[in-house]
Specification:
Elements: H1 14-31, H2 38-45, H3 49-55, H4 59-75, H5 83-100, H6 102-114, H7 118-126, H8 129-141, H9 148-163, H10 173-185
């Protein structure tokens, strides 16, 4: 989980924190990232702007924190009997996350913002939930290291498919998994 920075003052209210995290998700879907403001998030959450700024510096920090915990849960797949089954299950989870999940929508939004904003790029890079989940699966299935490159090779095709607006139903994750496993053992 992303730790919001403490800036002194009263202890963080878990109720206020949850309200802010829910507000940012709701507003993202309603108004989009460009129109999302710290003031709007505070108003939707029913807290003062000072409360929001006490814990987060930017809307990107709030959005990332709101999406990371859900992403970790949604991208975690249990061990399977074979590497092929495990990779297929992971790719299915990745496609669901990217194409259908509110946390995935937040993650896609942050990636788009990272393209133009170095601070968002650094934030996303430092909290690479997709890469971390892919490496966790690769660590379990072996052989070979669960490097960033291997994780990128695993998530890349599904990621490109979804991020370029293609229909998720047209993606054959089992076929992608078969090709990935064959490439790893060659």
């Amino acid at each position: 989980m992303i730790e919001a920075k403490g800036r002194g003052g009263r202890p963080r209210s878990e109720q206020a924190r949850e309200a802010v995290l829910h507000a940012v998700d709701d507003l993202l879907l309603e108004v989009g990232y460009a129109a999302l403001t710290m003031k709007g998030i505070a108003e939707r959450a029913g807290v003062g702007r000072q409360t929001v700024y006490r814990w987060w510096s930017t809307k990107a920090e709030i959005l990332l924190e709101a999406s990371v915990a859900d992403a970790q849960e949604e991208l975690a797949v249990p061990p399977a009997a074979t590497p092929l089954a495990e990779i297929t299950a992971y790719l299915d989870a990745l496609v669901r996350f990217l194409a259908h999940s509110p946390a995935g929508a937040a993650y896609r939004t942050l990636l788009g913002a990272a393209e133009h904003d170095p601070a968002v790029r650094e934030l996303v890079s430092a909290n690479d939930v997709v890469g971390a989940s892919a490496r966790a699966v690769l660590d379990r299935i072996g052989p070979g290291p669960a490097s960033e490159r291997a994780a990128a090779q695993l998530v890349g095709p599904a990621f490109f498919w979804i991020m370029s607006g293609r229909d998720p139903a047209g993606l054959d994750t089992h076929d992608l998994a078969r090709g990935f496993v064959a490439g790893r053992t060659a």
